[in-house]
Design a protein that fits this description.
The complex is a heterodimer of chains A (about 150) and B (about 425). Chain A has about 150 residues and is of the alpha/beta class. Helix content of chain A is about 20%, strand content about 25%. Chain A has an 8-stranded mixed β-sheet. In chain A, α1 runs parallel beside α2. Chain A is globular, with a radius of gyration of 14 Å. By secondary structure, chain B is α/β, with parallel strands linked by helices. The mean pLDDT of chain B is about 95. In chain B, the strands form 4 sheets. A 5-stranded parallel β-sheet of chain B has the order 12-11-10-13-14, sandwiched between helices. The longest helix of chain B is centred in the first third of the chain and has 16 residues. The chains are: A alpha/beta (about 150), B alpha/beta (about 425).
Chain lengths: ~150, ~425
């Protein structure tokens, strides 16, 4: 099933990848390893998961204002998520992506969705983001019997 | 949509004040667009957090700005950096790391920042005034500046902070505006005796609870005493800004925008009311530790945020007793205090540092155990009295952490294993 959602583009760009979904906020500093792209917050439900190259879907950031630097460094190192989809505007992470655009001409797209759309994205859905804020979601689970 | 720009803003954007100012302004304008802000505003002081982490990209950013003629336009202090600039050789820091850290420090001081290298800038030089519009980085300092001082700052991220300092401009939104500073959730303390609210442990534990329970909402605490020390409020802020995104809290009868409940909520009603009792505190206290009672201890870290003069004194008092009894820390236990030059200079004028040294305590300045590679990889169990350090240590240092108050930390260090008194609630 393919669905087309419309979001607000915070940092424009195009990306596609498999959704990595969490309902828990995450702090990139102390939570995201900029050398490997692993989620390293040991209290987070995604602890140990690789987020590099995924479309990372989480409600909002949290904690340290160093998150922008971690995101920038992970983009430089090629282990950033492919894109971020959030429920709330996350200026600290948007900044990391904007600075990456300034320094390396390599931002990662960031989109904000309203709540029903945000909640409709499931783990491992195939996601495509276009610069106008269109988020195309192809569901990978066709029902509870087919995981 | 682009925000409305002043003549000055336009001049910066056009490159009339140099390349760095142009780049900084472009970032400020894009951030205003992200936040949907129609206008920019002046800020009169900045605190830079972007100087703390050493990463190749962060260094490149700082050096690009400095090389582009970047100069701060407003008084600007620096958060801790990635290196103890005077004593790094003592801590076995890799030379390549140190040389990059020194370059990064130079880039920021070349731009005119004051080399305070402190993550507790409100306990040192250039403390902001009530109502002052500022652009601060460092989550604990942001929380303290807004809540305790009543200055006004948003959560400025690494890189945005220096852009604000160079341009003197920020998007006019969020906590800079009075109407966005009203309390949202009321936290009512119940069954807390005077001995609870007068214990050091209470504050980081309360902060941890508040952060987890409020997310990015503005909590209002009812039931704190009218007089709480700066160090305790520092501990509360640091913990609340780690487990959650608390950038401002009010405490009725204690913090400057909350002399009454009405004032804290600006005449409105709380979105929700939460009671905090001893069971909640115990749960939060438990959450702060991943190590067990009795675990062998490798490292004690105090001074997150940076140790103040008073904290040096408290620690010296605890250690003096041990020294008088001719106790010593077992081999294999490392005890590190992190502070800044200004507090350290004051401590130096007493006998505190001598006592710390005799007890085998190491002091490092200008930096932080998370940002300078001074913690051995073999470190398995770490103990701290900081809610923030306890929160981040498992991920950042890959160690188990035990949270306890300063006396617990000292007792555990001398026993070589985690041993804590039961909290007083």
């Amino acid at each position: 099933m393919v669905r087309v959602l419309k979001g607000r583009m915070l940092v424009a760009g195009q990306a596609s990848g498999r959704a990595l979904v969490t309902r828990e906020p995450i702090s990139f500093w102390g939570g995201y390893c900029p050398r490997t792209g692993e989620i390293i917050d040991r209290r987070h439900e995604l602890s140990g998961t690789m987020a590099a190259g995924r479309v990372f879907v989480f409600p909002r950031g949290r904690g340290s204002s160093t998150a922008s630097a971690i995101l920038l460094e992970s983009i430089k190192n090629g282990v950033a998520p492919a894109a971020l989809i959030n429920l709330d505007v996350e200026p600290i992470l948007a900044l990391g992506s904007i600075v990456s655009d300034e320094l390396y001409q390599r931002p990662i797209p960031m989109v904000v969705l309203d709540e029903p759309d945000f909640l409709s994205i499931e783990q491992d859905d195939d996601i495509r983001i276009d610069p106008d804020g269109t988020v195309t979601v192809r569901s990978n689970s066709s029902g509870p019997t087919n995981q | 949509m682009q925000p409305q720009l002043s003549e000055w803003d336009e001049q910066l954007l056009a490159g009339g004040v140099g390349q760095a100012a142009q780049r900084a302004m472009r970032i400020i304008v894009r951030m205003a667009e992200v936040c949907g802000t129609a206008e920019l505003m002046d800020v009169t002081q900045a605190h830079i957090d972007g100087c703390g982490l050493l990463s190749d990209s962060g260094l490149e950013f700082a050096e690009t700005l400095a090389a582009g003629g970047g100069k701060v336009r407003i008084p600007t202090t620096l958060n801790m950096g990635p290196l103890d600039l005077q004593n790094w050789t003592r801590f076995g820091i890799d030379e390549n790391f140190a040389s990059k850290a020194i370059r990064q420090a130079k880039a920021y001081t070349d731009m005119g920042c004051v080399p305070t290298w402190s993550c507790a800038p409100y306990q040192g030089y250039l403390t902001p005034r009530f109502g002052q519009q500022i652009a601060w980085g460092e989550s604990n300092a942001i929380c303290y500046a807004n809540s305790v001082l009543g200055a006004r700052t948003n959560r400025y991220a690494d890189f945005m902070d220096i852009c604000a300092a160079i341009t003197g401009r920020v998007p006019k939104c969020g906590l800079h505006l009075r109407e966005n500073r009203k309390g949202q959730i009321l936290f009512h303390l119940i069954d807390m005796g005077p001995s609870v609210v007068d214990s050091d442990t209470f504050y980081p534990v309360l902060g941890h609870f508040l952060g987890s329970a409020s997310g990015e909402k503005i909590p209002v605490i009812e039931g704190l005493p009218a007089c709480v020390s700066s160090d305790r409020l520092k501990a509360l802020c640091a913990a609340a800004a780690s487990s959650g995104g608390v950038a401002l809290f009010h405490a009725i009868g204690l913090t400057p925008e909350a002399s009454t409940r009405e004032e804290a909520f600006q005449g409105g009603e709380p979105e929700r009311v939460v009671e905090i009792g001893p069971t909640d505190l115990q749960k939060a206290w438990n959450e702060l530790s991943t190590a067990q009672e009795g675990d062998d201890l490798d490292l004690v870290v105090l001074g997150c945020p940076h140790f103040s003069f008073d904290e040096f004194r408290t620690l010296a008092d605890l250690l003096r007793v041990r020294l008088e009894e001719e106790q010593r820390m077992p081999d294999g236990v490392r005890f590190v205090v992190i502070s800044c030059q200004s507090s350290h200079a004051l401590a130096q004028r007493s006998d505190f540092l001598d006592i710390l040294e005799r007890a085998g305590v190491e002091t490092t300045l200008d930096t932080c155990v998370f940002h300078t590679p001074m913690v051995a990889k073999e470190t398995k169990v770490l103990m701290t009295n900081s809610g923030k350090c306890a929160y981040y240590a498992p991920g950042e240092l890959n160690a188990k952490v035990a949270f306890g108050d300063m006396a617990d930390c000292v007792a555990s260090a001398f026993q070589g294993r985690v041993c804590r008194e039961k909290p007083s609630w």
